[in-house]
Write a structure and sequence with these properties.
Elements lengths: L3 E6 L5 E7 L7 E2 L27 E4 L4 E4 L2 E2 H7 L2 H10 L5 H12 L6 H7 L8 H11 L13 H27 L12 H10 L10 H13 L7 H11 L4 H12 L7 H12 L5 H9 L20 H16 L6 H15 L1 H5 L6 H12 L6 H22 L27
Antiparallel strand pairs: 1-2, 2-3, 4-5, 5-6
Helix pairs in contact: 1-13, 2-17, 5-6, 5-10, 6-7, 6-17, 7-8, 8-13, 8-16, 8-17, 9-10, 9-17, 10-17, 11-16, 13-16
The protein binds carboxymethyl coenzyme *A.
The site of carboxymethyl coenzyme *A (CMC) has 15 residues, from helix 16.
């Protein structure tokens, strides 16, 4: 199985041959598992150079700006496919035939409604609760409702749970929004596409019967597609780790949602909108650019730069076009917030500081603007991200559970606490 080996000289004078695997894309991987038997651990906080699993789902090359789902580029998928087709691809490994796609969509539609008792569950929350707080709770609570698909060792159960999650998370996400606004819940409409149905559940009113605008439906679908998976990031790794103990899929996805909630992960597009509001007017941009360039000022232009994509973010390239289409459709080019965004994009792309550091707008810059133009409030942005990423989490969880030699995840540590010492009775302390 190993393609070659790496020799490691240990501090105790022994040397050990470690197998090296050659992946289909990306860096070679050294298998360090034998080190434990030699009395050594490796130290890698934040998993900067550690592959925690083998996966066939998503590949990223940050240097070249490549993102592939099952080998297909994100640009081609965003242009020529749609979100439910991407769901099929992520889950099964291949693009569906026309018939397979129809059957897949029918199956999702079969599961879009949530148990009526879940409606009353919402009443326990304050109306001003953060929608992510409600999402963590209601997705976790699904394990209390769907007992007939909780056996993770049964492939049929796993598949049913996967469909339930992909189909019901949009319903729950829209319910979070409606509950927080005090609007009545809207039932799913199965004659609509996945993304159209979501926008309908978000915005439709019993008093009038407007269907979502096709340009907005397409933009929503693209946002879902671009966020569907991103390899072994924090929330996906959380789902895998939770699932490795045998926890049910609803509990694992709730754990993923909790991890996504953090501002360092799913909260960047919300932060970008906050910054645009703070800048407020095009005339104030130079002041904020000065702050961003100033080494002594912690301010950064939110929505610019990326940890992994160091030349360009392929998702941002796709989102840029959609962003302009949406602003056009919503007649929002004159809105001061979007004027700030467009001027900032232009100035930063021409500014020496940003060019020399390869800081260009990332996917969150454009997705924040699009979501805001559609009328989605900032506190729902991370919920939308969670909705889109559910299929990625479920695919990665399924892949892990199907591994024949799957084991519980159990990282080790570099212990720097007290050595063993004798208990001191209370009177002697
Ligand atoms: N504004 C101003 N200067 C910046 C920015 C920025 N947004 N980002 C990086 N820099 C500067 C940084 O000060 C440094 O300058 P110098 O070389 O003079 O010291 C240089 O660029 C390199 O920065 P870095 O901190 O080494 O880059 P990083 O890879 O550690 O950080 C980042 C990546 C995304 C955390 C950072 O660019 C940033 O904070 N961006 C704003 C937040 C944001 O938009 N995050 C969303 C990313 S997309 C989310 C996703 O894919 O899930």
């Amino acid at each position: 199985m190993a393609d070659e080996s790496a020799k490691l000289l240990l501090p105790n004078g022994n040397s050990i041959d470690l197998p090296v695997y050659r992946p289909s894309e990306g860096f070679d991987v050294i298998d360090i598992r034998a080190l434990g038997k030699e009395g050594y651990f490796t130290y890698d906080p934040g998993f900067m150079a550690t592959a925690a699993c083998e996966s066939k789902i998503t590949y990223i090359d940050g240097g070249k700006g490549i993102l592939l789902y099952r080998g297909y580029s994100i640009e081609e998928l965003a242009d020529q496919s749609d979100f439910t087709e991407v769901c099929y691809l992520l889950l099964t490994g291949n693009l569906p035939s026309e018939q397979e796609k129809q059957e897949f969509n029918d199956k999702i539609n079969n599961h879009t409604m949530v148990h009526e008792q879940i409606h009353t569950f919402f009443n326990g929350f304050r109306r001003d609760a953060h929608p992510m707080a409600i999402m963590v709770a209601v997705v976790g609570a699904m394990s209390a409702f769907y007992h007939d698909s909780l056996d993770i060792n049964d492939p049929e159960h796993r598949s049913t749970s996967a469909f339930r999650l992909i189909a019901k998370v949009p319903t729950l996400a829209a319910m979070c929004y409606r509950y927080c606004c005090g609007h009545p819940f809207v039932h799913p409409r199965n004659e609509m596409s996945y993304s159209e149905n979501f926008l309908n559940m978000m915005f439709s009113m019993p008093s009038h019967d407007d269907k979502p605008d096709p340009v907005l439906v397409k933009a929503m679908d693209r946002i879902f597609t671009l966020h569907a998976d991103h390899e072994q990031n924090a929330s996906t790794s959380t789902v895998r780790l939770a699932g490795s103990s045998g926890a049910n899929p609803f509990a694992c996805i709730a754990a993923g949602i909790a991890s996504l909630w953090g501002p360092a992960h799913g909260g960047a597009n919300e932060a970008c909108l906050n910054m645009l509001e703070e800048i407020g007017h095009v005339d104030n941009i130079p002041e904020y650019l000065d702050k961003a360039r100033d080494k002594n000022d912690p301010f950064r232009l939110m929505g610019f730069g990326h940890r992994v994509y160091k030349n360009f973010d392929p998702r941002a390239t796709v989102m840029r076009t959609t962003c302009h289409e949406v602003l056009e459709t919503m007649n929002a080019h004159d809105d001061p917030l979007f004027q700030v965004a467009l001027a900032l994009e232009k100035i930063a792309l021409e500014d020496e500081y940003f060019i020399s550091r390869k800081l260009y707008p990332n996917v969150d810059f454009y997705s924040g603007i699009i979501l805001s133009a559609i009328g989605i409030p900032k506190n729902m942005f991370t919920v939308i991200f969670a909705l889109a990423r559910t299929v990625g989490w479920v695919s990665q969880w399924s892949e892990m559970i199907s591994e024949p030699d799957q084991r519980i995840g159990r990282p080790r540590q570099l212990y720097t606490g007290e050595k063993q010492r004798t208990f001191v009775p209370m009177e002697d302390r």
